Amino acid sequence: MGYYYGFDPTYILVIIGAVICMLASSNVNNTYRKYAKIRSRSGMTGAEAAARILAMSGIHDVSIQHISGDLTDHYDPSKKVLRLSDAVYDSHSVAAIGVAAHECGHAVQHQKGYLPLKLRSLLVPAANLGSKLGLPIVILGLILGIGFRLPNGDYFSLAMLGVWIFSLAVLFQIVTLPVEFNASRRALSMLRDYGMLSSDEIGDCRNVLTAAALTYVAAAASSVLQLLRLLMLSNRRRDRD
């Protein structure tokens, strides 16, 4: 009955996804702020920790750059550049070292030819296409009701085409999960094996990286919920036609 009162029940899926993402974002920010107050016993900054990890991992062709923003850290495999944010580059905290080590984990993945990282890199153009065009095409298809019957009698609409395009962005989010979790595992192992942090400090880093990983889980879950909503809307239009 919700449709008849101007409320689309599928919006509930969008709301759930938004709430999940907000909770994950709040959690990672609070967790990082907590451990950003704890200075590492080594006294290393995030940039120094990254340089040491890369050197001890036998990686000498990756540069480290300082970028603006908080927690905008990332590794660019196309340019072999590890970029550390204001909150990490010059910080001596356990949290900063953990984040820097995580980005080094991506560099190690690249060096070793980690398959999920390769797949994610290949999916970047398709994911950009899906995130930019998928939803507009679905909306246009729902408004115009453009579609046609396939030889087997099934109905294929412009809206469904948009759903398929949007699914590329969802696939990217899903493939990102093993990449991020693996980078965190590598980071913790390197910090321990290279003797850069004590056991209790590594535990603190694990808390930071786990909170960060949950933001990717939340993003993937939100994308799946959005895809489910678009699929439901497309099927509803098809049933009408």
Automatic annotation (TrEMBL):
| Entry keyword annotation includes Transmembrane | yes
Coiled-coil ranges (or none): none
Question: This protein's superkingdom?
Answer: Bacteria
Membrane-spanning ranges: 12-32, 133-150, 156-179
Q: Does the keyword Transmembrane helix apply?
A: yes
Q: Name one Pfam family in it.
A: Zn_peptidase_2
Alphabetic keyword roster? Membrane, Transmembrane, Transmembrane helix
Name this polypeptide is given: Zinc metallopeptidase
Record organism: Suilimivivens aceti
